[in-house]
Write a structure and sequence with these properties.
Strand order of the largest sheet: 3-2-1-4-5-7-6
Radius of gyration: 17 Å
Shape: globular
Structural class: alpha/beta
Number of strands: 7
């Protein structure tokens, strides 16, 4: 079953054998690390290739020209580590993996070092960083209203946003528009029919109504 899922991922993404090997290392190491700290739901690990790897990798097809990415609340490395693996050998490719929790950053750094990835791990608050990138992204970090606050500095430096969301994405966007002026749209996730990807082209905080 794993072989078939891995082959399906490779067919969808065009990943080469070296990238598939790196993802396999990541899959195994994630399973080991997840036994001592809660990185992902244990029930989701058997579906690594679709639920985690493909869910992350689909972002590249939505921004094929993008070279630099910032993953806010990078956690277990989705989507950031997957994007870094797929950016390996790509001229100018780089991913910033930003997380406020030290133990998650140590796991991310171990993966970056182990696979020689074009990535930088930053232990700190997302909104406090000065990273400039093409795309700012996040998965399962916060509702859109709060997430936009974390991402706003990246938008101000020229980034666009691609955020992986679940079935509440539409209601989260409606709520976010009470606090933000947004140029944003929803697209269906290719990995989960319930999932959505929120594309944000521009954002600015709305003035409070008196």
């Amino acid at each position: 079953m794993l072989d078939a899922e891995r082959a399906a991922f490779q067919a969808r993404t065009g990943a080469d054998e070296a990238q598939i090997a790196d993802l396999e290392i990541f899959r195994v190491r994630l399973g080991e690390a997840n036994q001592v700290m809660n990185l992902v739901g244990p029930d989701s690990l058997p579906d690594f290739w679709n639920r985690h790897a493909w869910d992350s990798a689909q972002l590249m097809s939505l921004a094929p020209e993008a070279r630099t990415w910032a993953d806010l609340g990078a956690g277990a490395g989705f989507p950031g580590l997957v994007l870094a693996i797929l950016s390996k050998g790509r001229p100018g490719g780089h991913v910033w993996l930003i997380d406020s929790l030290g133990k998650r950053c140590r796991f991310l750094q171990e993966m970056v070092d182990l696979m020689g990835l074009p990535a930088t791990v930053i232990n700190g608050r997302a909104e406090a960083q000065t990273v400039t990138c093409d795309i700012v992204t996040a998965r399962a970090v916060a509702p859109m209203e709060r997430l936009l606050g974390y991402a706003q500095p990246y938008f101000q430096r020229g980034a666009q946003g691609l955020f992986l969301k679940g079935e509440k994405a539409e209601s989260e966007l409606i709520e976010a528009r009470k606090s933000w002026h947004l140029d944003a749209e929803l697209a269906p996730s290719q990995s989960d029919p319930r999932g959505r990807i929120v594309t944000v082209r521009s954002v600015r905080r709305a003035r409070p109504k008196h």
